[in-house]
Write a structure and sequence with these properties.
This is D-lactaldehyde dehydrogenase. By secondary structure, the chain is α/β, with parallel strands linked by helices. It contains 12 helices and 10 strands. Bound molecules: NADPH dihydro-nicotinamide-adenine-dinucleotide phosphate.
């Protein structure tokens, strides 16, 4: 399917951490953006924040993404869709609190695009690296699936681990999207591409006035610099601006128009519109080590390579989308500068 170089992009959940950066990136690249929010109050900050883009930025209210036809109006007249809206928290009791909106939101927006998205050419779905992670040897790549979390939730239900419940929601939503494409590909004039970033970190531009309002991943970074939690834990990370740029590049890059789910499940050539974004393994001590000296330093030098989670293979994102990546130093410095500007953290020198 040919790429889109201009036009209007629908960004669902526009008020979220990742989505607000996506909106900013699309607007800066000359696209118009229609964002969805759950209610008008959630759109207030966005209206102010993107006011300088005039009528290139508009908002629509989609009160319940799980309702049938929720996106029927929102998809009309747009050239591409970035579907980011999905719950990301680790406090669900019932796994369906996460998987319900994740799956129904994803299938719902695809169904609306099938019926009313005559102008749509590309749909980018913000999946996650947690839909990929699996305990195999060697670097994880786009052909891996986190079937373990799905199994854990199927077996244990509400007793499954909170992280497994979130992973389960992302696997089911992403798989649902590929299945939808398998089923309806002859009826639609668009293709699907999926982004699989791990823990997303960086400065925030969405509506947050106190640290406790931060979204799940940004709060983890804030906690690393302000509390005495364990620094040896970690995972893989991605820079939030890089993730925004990945959404833009995915819209602007020629990609194979139809990729069957079987090709996503099993290496069949490299024609898969699924992209790991970022993916460098880290421990929280690595983040502290990357900070300028006047911030919390934890236990410098305490991490050796055997303690650091493995990197994911993001080479497809570089080869196909042309992604390059912001360093851990730049990411940490920009995030700390953001905290400082907000008065959330003081460098040691300034507080002495
Ligand atoms: P945020 O919590 O900041 O934003 C989530 C967005 O989804 C908000 O607009 C939120 O709306 C909306 N949303 C959440 N639950 C529902 C629901 N039940 N019904 C309707 N809308 C809902 O999260 P992020 O920006 O971090 O996440 C955005 C996307 O990126 C998600 O799909 C997430 O899975 C994915 N992702 C995030 C990563 C990260 O580390 N942050 C890593 C990999 C993927 P509202 O504000 O009204 O609740």
């Amino acid at each position: 399917m040919p790429s889109i170089q201009s036009g209007k992009v629908l960004v669902s959940g526009a008020n979220g951490f990742v989505a607000t950066w996506c909106v900013q990136t699309f607007l800066d690249a000359g696209f118009s953006v229609r964002g969805t929010v759950r209610n008008a109050i959630k759109g207030k900050h966005l209206k102010r924040f993107f006011a300088s883009y005039g009528d290139k930025f508009e908002l629509v209210v989609v009160p319940d993404i799980t309702a049938p036809g929720a996106f029927d109006e929102a998809v009309q007249g747009v050239d591409a869709i970035a579907h980011t809206a999905s719950p990301f928290h680790l406090a669900a009791d019932d796994p369906a609190d996460l998987s319900g909106p994740a799956v129904q939101g994803t299938i719902g927006i695809l169904e609306s695009a099938r019926k009313y998205g005559q102008t749509v050419k590309r749909i980018v779905i913000t999946s996650s690296a947690v839909a990929v992670t699996t305990p195999k040897d060697g670097p994880l790549d786009e052909y891996d699936w986190n079937n373990g979390a799905v199994q854990a939730v199927a077996n244990k239900g509400a007793d499954a681990g909170n992280f497994d419940k979130y992973c389960n929601s992302k696997v089911l939503a992403e798989r649902g999207a590929w299945e939808f494409l398998d089923k309806h590909r002859t009826e639609v004039g668009w293709d699907i591409a999926v982004l699989n970033p791990p823990l997303i970190l960086g400065p925030v531009i969405h509506d947050v006035s106190t640290p406790d309002q931060l979204n799940t991943s940004a709060k983890m970074m804030f906690n690393a610099f302000t509390t005495e939690g364990p620094t040896t834990h970690g995972g893989q990370w991605a820079n939030v601006k890089d993730v925004g740029r990945a959404h833009l590049l995915t819209v602007m890059t020629d990609l194979p128009s139809y990729v069957p789910l079987s090709a996503v499940n099993k290496k069949e050539g490299r024609n898969v519109n699924r992209f790991i974004i970022g993916g460098q393994g880290f421990t929280w001590q690595d983040m502290l080590d990357a900070a300028p000296t006047q911030y919390k330093k934890g236990f410098p030098g305490s991490i050796n390579t055997t303690m650091r989670p493995r990197d994911m293979d993001n080479s497809r994102s570089q080869e196909v989308l042309g992604m390059d990546y912001t360093s851990i130093h730049e990411t940490v410095e920009e995030t700390l500068a953001d905290y400082e500007r907000r008065g959330w953290i003081k460098p040691f020198a300034a507080s002495a």
